[in-house]
Amino acid sequence: MTEPTGPLAGIRILDLTSVLFGPYAAAILGDWGADVIKVESLAGDMWRYTGAFRNRGMSGQFMAVNRNKRSLALDLKHPDGKATLQRLIPTADVLLTNVRPAAMARLGFGYDDCRALNPKLIYAAATGFGQEGPWAKRPAFDEIIQAASGLASSIGSDEEPQFVPSLVGDKICGQALAGAVSAALFARERSGKGQLVEVPMLETVAGFNSIEMLGGYAFDPPIGPSGYKRMKERKPVRTKDGWITMLPYSGDNWCAFFEAVGRPELTDELQVRDPVARAENIDRIYAAMNEIAASRTTAQWQELLLRLDVPHTAFARIDEITEQEHLKAVDFFVDIDHPTEGKIRQARPATKFSEAPPNLHRVPPRLGEHSRDVLMEAGFSDAEVETLVATGAVAQM
């Protein structure tokens, strides 16, 4: 363990979230220096048991979004567990939850309950659907949001939608939640007031997807079809010996590309200089590029496109991503010695702050590893902690 050095050092967060959306947001805030206390049930976050692991409850997926946190195992349905959290709330700056609001209210930890205990608290709710809409009480998972937001239709088509094979909804919303909490903390610095922050998944992903995918429906009445034709045409390009993504983007890029490959006549034939005509002809342009791509190897294309300053890259295999040239040069993936899990590999914080660099200051916690420490810091006596453990309100390693 090292001291946190990020811009949120000194901020304390109670993280009552599980799986990915909320924990990812809390991990980002922890990377940025916050003291994140992960409040788990006595069984632990179910994400602990998903994916590959050396020891039960410490999967690689769990550890990726639960570093820089301390674990407090607490039974909130137990009267003493409830009373324990009530004593912790006044010590916190932020409470994060992805428990549905009605369930939090039944537990006695809705926004009004928590505000009464700590008027300066930022209460951040990670929800599936905005709480003013008819779907407010529905459960939400990533695929539900991909389907309902239009993202799956954008990836596939209206006739045959497809899911992104990654939990992108959770991760997009986790980043949005981290930003929202940071903004609310900044507002509190000016006003002295806490507030309720809600980040709903459906609205967040629908807005994210709509930027380019509304297409002609960005106007009322619509002036063209929905979708972004260029994205539908952009696909991996097969070379003589593999694959590459090449992305001539500007008119100058396309002119340089067709000139370099000995096909200058396509510059005028496909009208690549004019951005409007280029967009209209993009299917023909990409078809020509695909045909030409088969004439050279991936390495030959990389050498040529780099010289032309045309955006491009070869494809990275998932199992080789830690050796990708750029990521390796900037030491993006780091090896961490975990006391129980051995050597683990994680991505370091990507965001940089020149005056307050974020760091990996805590390894991912075992369930209840910090229960005693957290409670003692909050003013609980040894005898009180022992009683809480004996009654089953708290678990500790």
TrEMBL record:
Keywords for the protein's UniProt record, in alphabetical order: Transferase
Pfam families given in the database record: CoA_transf_3 (PF02515)
Gene Ontology MF terms: CoA-transferase activity
The protein's name in its UniProt record: CoA transferase
Organism: Rhodopseudomonas palustris
